[in-house]
Amino acid sequence: MAQVPSKEDVLKQYREDGITDATRRVIAQEGFAALTIERVAELANISKGTIYLYFKNKDDLIQATVTDTFRQIIARLSVAQPPELPFPERLRALIRLQLQQFETNQAFFRALMADRRYLPQADNQEDCTVQLHLQLLSIFADVIREGQAGGFVRPEVDPDEAAFFLFQLISGSSMRHLLGFSNRTLGESVEVLLTYLFSGISTRGV
Questions:
Q1: Residue 134 phi/psi, 5° resolution?
Q2: What share of the chain is helix, strand, coil (3-state, %, to 5)?
Q3: How far apart are the first and last CA of the chain?
Q4: For the segment 128-150, what is each residue's pLDDT rounded down to a tens digit?
Q5: According to DSSP H, which parts of 86-158 are helical?
Q6: 161 by DSSP, 3-state: which?
Q7: How far is the C-alpha of 96 from the C-alpha of 77, rounded, in Å?
């Protein structure tokens, strides 16, 4: 049976969520270079000292904000594709929501990609951000495995590898939007990704 959080735990989580949300907004609006504890406190409408009750320093705050962003995305993706849907529709729903997450947080992700210090680092498998990224990929991999079980996906496909490639396609599509290189709607981007995934780009096969 899950333990009921205490009032203190609920208040602590509420405070931390408010601070990381303010941090995300500063990063999105002004970039990492403009981020200060004072600016976050101003936007969160709290004292500078209150932030230090929850976070050791600016780097700790930034890392917590990046981690919180990934956790929010994972939580939304986890319920995005009801198991009763057929495989193509589950995958379509998953891709659509991932693109929506990039679109909703596009200014934040643009800043994150420009300053890569806080992105997952492959050489540190114990890093929390790396673990969250792997968890994110596992959601895609699990749907692909179910597609294999239903005969929609070839049996020789490695679901973990396919999930990684699919996520890179989604990230690439999002990057085109971030850079202003695409005028496709969200729905059109989903269908293009599915076409690349299932049909490829070759007219003759390889």
A1: -65, -40
A2: 70, 0, 30
A3: 53
A4: 778 888 899 999 999 999 999 99
A5: 87-104, 106-114, 128-149
A6: helix
A7: 10
